[in-house]
Predict the structure.
Amino acid sequence: MTPLTDVDAFLGLQKSYPRGLSNDTLLPGELRELSSRGMLSYTADERALFLYERREGCLKLRFRLRDEDAQLPPCGETITCYLPYREGERTQTTIDWLQGQGFRHLVTLERYTARQISGDLSGGKADRTSAEEAYAMILSYFSPAEADLPPREYFGGAYCCRSEEGIPQGMLADLGRAAVVCVSPEARGHGIGGKLYLAYAAEARRKLGNPVFHEWIRPDNKASQRMFGKLGFVRDGVWAEGYVLKTGDGRPETGETVG
């Protein structure tokens, strides 16, 4: 893999590959930011362009294929891949290619959107906490591949709800465009996820004015759907499917996400 340092040269290369069999949705500004952080590398040949984003514990793959018989180069690490699509536009050929490379289905997500958060934003009684503490709790419940987590330093902030004894009961990590919410099993059903999100939304409004919020939720996660519904989120019909390929030792652990 070649580290991506010359973004302009890469953009020229990228344009020579079709968008048909592709999950490459990074915009030039995002490419520049991720490249400046040393998070991007790529491989390319006459059949395909593979772009890798360095994550905590895995690589996130974006690709453009000229030939559906293209082969993914081995790299010895866990690779995750997300396919965004709208309902009715499921690209089965792309899914077949991933499965042919050894990827297994990881998760299906639905996107929910809120143009205005319902509820009292001052009611989000959550404390700011370090990215390290938030990360430790999040990783105790599911893998980086499942949560689609970037490295810790990419966090915009983190929030925590604790018991009277000071034990963390829930964490929210701000990933810039979305948030990851994690609530311990024994603390679920007490509104902790909503408190965390209200605190996050209050700060986002202070910084951005009146932002639009997007969150990804599993179709079987009814608790999160109810919580975000109360906050004013509406499912907007956009889906994403996640796949994982483990090329090192073992397989990534599975777990349960809350948000």
User: Anything to note?
Assistant: The CA atoms of residues 111 and 216 lie 5 Å apart.
